[in-house]
Amino acid sequence: MQSFFIDGNKFNFEIDNTKKVIKKLKIHSSPKDYELSLIGESVEKSINKIISISQTPVLLIDSNIYKIYGSKIKKKSLLIYKFVAKENKKNINECIKFTTFLEKNNITKSSTVIVVGGGIVQDIGAFSCSIYKRGIKWIYFPTTLLSMTDSCIGGKTALNYKNIKNLYALFSSPHKVILNTEFLTTLPKKDVLSGLGESLKLSIIGGRKSLESFSTNIDKAIQMDRSALTRIILTSLLIKKSVIENDEFENNERRSLNYGHSLGNAIEPMSKFYIPHGTAITIGLLIENKISLKKFGLSKDSDKHILDLAKKLLLPRFIKKLSNINLSTVNDYLINDKKAQGKILKIAVPTKIGYINFCKLNLSQTSTKIINHSVQLLLKEL
Ligand SMILES: NC(=O)c1ccc[n+]([C@@H]2O[C@H](COP(=O)([O-])OP(=O)(O)OC[C@H]3O[C@@H](n4cnc5c(N)ncnc54)[C@H](O)[C@@H]3O)[C@@H](O)[C@H]2O)c1
User: Fold this and answer.
1) Would you list the DSSP string of 25-71?
2) Which atom of ligand 1 is nearest to the CA of 198?
């Protein structure tokens, strides 16, 4: 059993370091628990199985995934809605288009929506399924590393509004999650590295042992070794499970999972969504570490340890983009952070590895200077 601390409260999780890989995780949730299954069979077999046992199934699928697996999907009595996964399409208009499709096809509450895709398709599916007829069942096949290690559990969903990331947000848990790492064989490298950013965040929250396990597996995972990827995915999920089961609706400790997100969710739209979400989170956590180093007590050793791991996840073109971002308007983004109250932003930062605390940042010209200084410091080290 491993322990970590959020705002002084102790959390435990069972680190997945045995030879026996976990195949099922039960997620305690309100109003209903759900199960995550790790599947070894082929992608088409696992999707076709769910289609065959679902009543009036609707497949909401990432158009890139459809290109790869579409010909092998059994289409008899199946409604298919392909979605182009672009950040600028993660909005309410696209949800309305999808729910209109459901309505035109007389979809009722007894139907199941099978969502196949990464975080963008998940957000569109989860949001739509929660507002359509006050809730319709959805089953989720995550296809990116980010969605496998992080977003597939926890029930959060959000849409962007104009240039504000995740402004419209609600909770919508899936009925079931089916995790098949075969999807990762076609995932572009930038998206693999992006997904590893969210697992790095969870591994820092989880403490020394989980960060050690991340360091052991990172190089092989980047080389797409399936067993190293599975280890990283399971450890991340076990840490997240421990937090969300204590505070599913983010009243207190779950806010710790936003480590890296205050700055990350600003950097992502400031880069006009050129920098992928998980990569923006990696950058965000490095900037927040610099702030913690200066103001909240993170040690130089911990900052360097995290930086050395994060460097493996940052492609030169994204570092270059960061260096070209004009940070003078950063407060306009931070003020929309869900953890901001007026001009006070409580950022979740590590005070050491395995210890997350909520620290107040007064949004002002001074905080803009601190952020700017932190980014310049970081750029020198990257
Ligand atoms: N709801 C949540 O809890 C939560 C948590 C974290 C992030 N998010 C959101 O998730 C989004 C990012 O999602 P993401 O990083 O999972 O990816 P994504 O959905 O943005 O997809 C990235 C790209 O990979 C492609 N793709 C997906 N799976 C593939 C595969 N197996 N093979 C080849 N190509 C594939 C997509 O078509 C797309 O081009 C952001 O909008 C972020 O805000 C949501």
Assistant:
1) EEE--SS--EEEEE--S-HHHHHHHHHHHSSSEEEEEEHHHHHHHGG
2) 6
For 144-188, the DSSP string reads SHHIIIIITSS-EEEEEETTEEEEEEEE---SEEEE-GGGGGG--
147 CA to centre of ligand 1 in angstroms: 6
Is the model's pLDDT at 71 over the cut of 80? yes
pLDDT, tens digit (0-9, with 9 covering 90-100), for 33-51: 999 999 999 999 999 999 9
d(C-alpha 181, C-alpha 63), whole Å: 18
**Multiple choice CATH, 15-186, 3.40.50.1970, 3.40.50.261, 3.40.50.1000, 3.40.109.10:** 3.40.50.1970
* Protein residues with CB under 6 Å of any ligand 1 atom: 62, 64-65, 85, 87, 90, 117-123, 143-144, 146-147, 150-151, 154, 156-157, 166, 183, 186-187, 191, 194, 277-278
Give the span between the Cα atoms of 44 and 56, in whole angstroms: 19
- Pocket residue to mutate for ligand 1, from 36, 90, 143, most atoms within 8 A of Cβ: 143
Q: Which of 123, 124, 193, 281 to mutate to test the pocket of ligand 1 (most atoms within 8 A of CB)?
A: 123
State which fold the 190-381 domain adopts. Dehydroquinate synthase-like, alpha domain (1.20.1090)
Give the domain ranges of the chain.
15-186, 190-381
**Beta-carbon count within 10 A of 304 CB:** 13
Confidence check: pLDDT of 325 > 90: yes
pTM score, whole prediction = 0.96
